[in-house]
Structures are given as structure tokens and as C-alpha cells.
Write a structure and sequence with these properties.
Blueprint lengths: L3 E2 L2 H4 L5 E5 L3 H13 L3 E5 L2 H11 L3 E5 L7 H9 L6 E5 L4 H9 L4 E4 L4 H13 L2 E2 L6 E4 L4 E4 L4 E4 L2 E2 L4 H12 L5 E2 H8 L8 H15 L6 E4 L3 E4 L1
Parallel strand pairs: 2-3, 2-4, 4-5, 5-6
Antiparallel strand pairs: 1-7, 8-9, 9-10, 10-11, 12-14, 13-14
Helix pairs in contact: 3-4, 7-9, 8-9
Length: 237
């Protein structure tokens, strides 16, 4: 059974730090004032890339993350956060479609709230997430593909093939990580763009094709495990 640790809010005497990643200025300022009046410390970001920067420097207790962000969207930000942290994430979306809710929860979000919403409900959800005990980080965070003697150390961001470190670009690392994590499932080119590139806007599917080709070369014989799914994308078999 995994061990747990109290949230950082408990360690600070009860004041929760909430990172609000929202591009709507009026909503961001309104929610910031609401959080402050509720005794919480609010920190802000107006786009996905800035959100990751603030996340890295503030260690928030809860992240409130809008899906429709510029630069990096909410899906990309959530994926990056989950590479390194189990911090509770509450996703906001202008739509209440069931498949978006399911996708968010399956991607690692802890809660989901559709706009428009009441501030009392938002505060109640944030307080519940801030009280939740956090899972203690494991001694290692290794993903292995035994048949290829491939090992990924997620926390150290190192891939090893037969015990030797691979020299991967950030895009190649994130491509490999996505394929290993979703081994057996075909990932579309659009999914891989969102997961591996910092700013996928304007990037065509050929960019994924050539990045996968380079990754296969670096993997040598193990590169054959990356299977092309015609007209769709790739999967690790």
C-alpha cells in the first residue's frame, strides 16, 4: 500500500496555494479575489507555458486549469504536470461534454467543472482537493519495456537502452514517454503533437513522422517496436 504525506497546505499551517491557469483576464482576477477572501494564496498564469513556469517555482497545493489556453492547451499542461507531480488538478472547460470529462479524468485530472459555475462550488471543490493526502513519491519512477531492454526514468528524464543512456531531444523524449506509457494503444498524430511539442500550432503531421523516424534510428533494433498505424499514427507493440 503506497504511503501518504500531508499536503503542503497542512505544512504551512492550513493556507493553500492555488495556481490558477486561465486566459480570461476578468475571470482570472475575479477568481483570484475570491480565493484571497477565502484565505487562500492565489498565483496566476494566462497561458499554458507560463502556467508550467509558475508551477515549477511555487509548488501549489491545487492547480485550477482551463482547457482552452493559448500557447499550450490544458491537455498539454496536464500531461507535463503528471510527468513530475501528483498535485490535485481541477480542470475548467466551457463545455460539459461527457467525453471531455472522461478524457480529463483518465488523463490524470482529479476533478472537472464546466463553465459557467458558482464560486461557492468552486471553493468547495478546491478545499476538498487541498485536504486530500498526497501519495508519497516512489523511490524510483521507472518504465520498462523488457523485450527491448529499454528503461525510462521519468523523474530523471533519462532513457536507457541496454543500460546505456540515449541522447534524446526533448521532443524525442516526450514521444517515447507517450508511446511507452500507452503501450499497445494507437496514438494519433494529433495526440503525439499535443504531447511532445511545446507549441504544436501550425505544425503538420509530417513533423511527427520525421521525429518518429529519428527516434527509431536512435533505438536501433528496438525501433521496430514503434509500429505505424496507417492513416492514423503510431503505437508501441
Amino acid at each position: 500500500m503506497p504511503s501518504t504525506r500531508p499536503s503542503a497546505a497542512a505544512a504551512r499551517g492550513g493556507q493553500a496555494t492555488v495556481l490558477l491557469v486561465e486566459d480570461n483576464t476578468v475571470l482570472r482576477e475575479t477568481l483570484g479575489l475570491t480565493l484571497s477572501r477565502a484565505g487562500m494564496r492565489a498565483v496566476f498564469a494566462a497561458d499554458g507555458a507560463a502556467g508550467l513556469d509558475v508551477f515549477a517555482t511555487t509548488e501549489p497545493d491545487v492547480v485550477v486549469l482551463d482547457l482552452g489556453l493559448p500557447v499550450l492547451d490544458g491537455w498539454q499542461v496536464l500531461a507535463r504536470i503528471r510527468e513530475q507531480s501528483d498535485v490535485p488538478v481541477l480542470m475548467l472547460n466551457a463545455q460539459s461534454l461527457e467525453h471531455d470529462k472522461v478524457r480529463g479524468l483518465e488523463a490524470g485530472a482529479d476533478d472537472y467543472l464546466a463553465k459557467p459555475f458558482g464560486t461557492r462550488e468552486l471553493l468547495a471543490r478546491i478545499r476538498a482537493l487541498a485536504r486530500r493526502p498526497r501519495t508519497a513519491p516512489p523511490a524510483t519512477s521507472l518504465l520498462r519495456v523488457e523485450s527491448a531492454e529499454l528503461e525510462l526514468d521519468v523523474r530523471a528524464r533519462i532513457a536507457r537502452l541496454r543500460g546505456e543512456p540515449l541522447e534524446l531531444t526533448p521532443v524525442e523524449w516526450r514521444l517515447l514517454l507517450a508511446l511507452v506509457r500507452e503501450r499497445g494503444r494507437a496514438l494519433s498524430r494529433a495526440e503525439l503533437l499535443a504531447l511532445a511539442w511545446d507549441d504544436p500550432a501550425g505544425i503538420g503531421p509530417d513533423r511527427v513522422k520525421y521525429a518518429v523516424l529519428r527516434l527509431r534510428r536512435k533505438l536501433g533494433a528496438a525501433g521496430a517496436l514503434i509500429e505505424s498505424v496507417r492513416g492514423f499514427g503510431y503505437r508501441l507493440v
